[in-house]
Amino acid sequence: MKKNHVLSFKYFIYDFLHIFTFLPGFIWWRPKHLYESEVAKKKIKGGGILISNHLGFTDPVFLMYGFWYRRLHFVALKVFFNTPFKRFLFRQFQCIPIDRENMSMDTFREIVGHLKNDEVVAIFPEGRINTTKEEIQPLKSGMILMAMQSGKPIYPVYIQKKKGIRYRLLVVVGEPIYVQQEGGMNLKGIENTTEKLYNKEICLKRIADSYYEKSQNNNTNFFFVE
User: Fold this and answer.
1) With 70 as the cut, is the pLDDT of residue 13 above it?
2) Whole-number Å distance between alpha carbons of 207 and 87
3) Residue 49 in contact with residue 96, Cβ under 8 Å?
4) Spatial distance between the Cα atoms of 68 and 167, rounded to a whole number of angstroms
5) Are 56 and 129 in contact (CB under 8 A)?
6) Where would a tag sit more exposed on the chain, N or C end, judged by fewer CB atoms within 10 A?
7) Which of 5, 15, 20, 25 is nearest to 92 (CA)?
8) Could you tell me the pLDDT band of residue 103, with boundaries at 50, 70 and 90?
9) What's the whole-number mean pLDDT along residues 73-92?
């Protein structure tokens, strides 16, 4: 199996910007990482699919803070690759273009290939930035097929942006979901697993909300409310 080396020309720009922008962003957003359980605290070993709610264009950066020890391959809308410069830039950041309305088999195989190569692929299964009043929009089920085809787990994550300068960015990590244990490759099994992942996102949101409510009553530290 092909391995990703610590030093790789393929990831030169990704690693360069990751290293030199980490500290300024860390100081500004002051990310706080919460975990559903001790199991959720374990670092990702091998391939896996990260899924998260989608609140804005900075969400990929927030995921990179939460999983700094792994290189993430983000699935991004094909429309963002509409010029030669953008195609070059997004590819340097290891983004994978996808047509939201009609995903091709080439895209599917590319994502599964990354997973089988023990890489981490990040997907926002809501399909678009959530500008509605809903907590989390319904999730698309393509990630289930990718997980089943590759044999890799899905790691649910919930992002809660800062609610003011006093507060911190919250990134809540849930326990991995092993799709193979949830049901067969049939429509009902896919629907059930997608619903389970949606409910997991709601659960992670409640963890973030609970932490935020507690921090509102803590006025002892202006910059690092705990």
Assistant:
1) yes
2) 37
3) no
4) 21
5) yes
6) N
7) 15
8) confident
9) 85
Contacts by 19-23, CB closer than 8 A, 24 or more apart: 22/65, 22/68
Sign of the C-alpha dihedral, residues 70, 125, 57, 162?
A: negative
C-alpha span between 48 and 114 (Å, rounded): 9
Identify the CA nearest to 142 among candidates 180, 174, 103: 103
Q: Which residue has the tokens 């609140």?
A: 55
| CA–CA dist 168, 162 (Å, integer) | 5
Lowest-pLDDT range of 18-22, 118-122, 183-187, 200-204: 183-187
> Tokens in use for 90?
């997004």
Q: Is the pLDDT of residue 28 over 60?
A: yes
User: Which residue's structure tokens are 């992942």?
Assistant: 197
**Tokens at 98, concatenated:** 């996808």
